Amino acid sequence: MSSTIRNADEKINMDQLIHKKVALASLCSFGTGGAADYLAIPTNLNELRISLHWAKSRQLPITMLGRGTNVLIADDGIEGLVILTTRLDSHHARGCIFCSEGGLSLDTAINIAIENSLSGLEPLGGLPGTVAGAVYGNAGANGRYIGELIEWVEYLDPAGNLLRYHNKEGGFSYKKSPFTNSDAIIYEVAFRLIPNKNSSKARLIKEQSRTERLEKGQFDLPSAGSVFKNPENISAGKLIEEAGLKGVMQNGAMVSPQHANFIVNSSRRATSQDIFDLSTLMQKRVKELFGITLEREIILLGRWNR
Ligand SMILES: Cc1cc2nc3c(=O)[nH]c(=O)nc-3n(C[C@H](O)[C@H](O)[C@H](O)COP(=O)(O)OP(=O)(O)OC[C@H]3O[C@@H](n4cnc5c(N)ncnc54)[C@H](O)[C@@H]3O)c2cc1C
Fold it and tell me: What predicted TM-score, i.e. pTM, was given to this entire model?
């Protein structure tokens, strides 16, 4: 197996696949953070494996990045190799199974499923990010979590072996998947969807969900969605709002005046540290007032040293 990779390695122009010192702020929705030591943008499974092999042979850590809509990248950047998945975007439908490479935008995946008369994903309409990013954190909206629709996930282990995870009950839970905090690289996802000839109704549900997000102003300012997970039976946003934190600023970062669980880079000049410090203040105030520890939903990537 490794020789196949090595042979392919020779054929591929590594300068085109792997780039040194690449600024990441424009590749994440907060618009903050430093550079990747190295960035690979594979376009197929072979290039993904070669990127993995390249990093492993240099003993460099690997960080996966989709559309960067759920992460806070350290101002000092990310060590080792960052693999950006957004060009891994092929897909196909057969019967009620819709398969997508992990880098396809979730919104596009929903549109393609509807075009193929397949329903189920549309309550997630307008949710930013890639298919793999959504699977990693079991993203959800309007009462639907992506894990509910998954038949199987193909992923690479650190040695580059392609393995298949068959979804079973309990595999996915609130904002958690079998891939959360693991070193698996999600490559392809198969969804089991519901045949539905009434594509106009499915399209309407999807568009309603997207429009509601726009009307709530979710995309007006740079953010990464909800900063904290909801504690059991309580909304994190409600706790933060009751703590009087809506609109509070930390240098260039602000607790969104519209949605208390969002931090927005309102000045577009905030650093990741400003956002982190503001999130710490939110945690502290909520703990002092309600005795509840808020758990961060946004994922810290890179050199945080904490
Ligand atoms: C305005 C706004 C609204 C949002 N609303 C919601 C919402 O309603 N519900 C919700 O659940 N989330 C929401 N989010 C958060 C975010 O959109 C989702 O979590 C999304 O699914 C993340 O996808 P991504 O591609 O951006 O992942 P990224 O942010 O790029 O990565 C997230 C995590 O997944 C890992 N990862 C990415 N790709 C792979 C891979 N191929 N293999 C292994 N690991 C991988 C990364 O290393 C990182 O740890 C919102 C965000 C924004 C900005």
Answer: 0.95
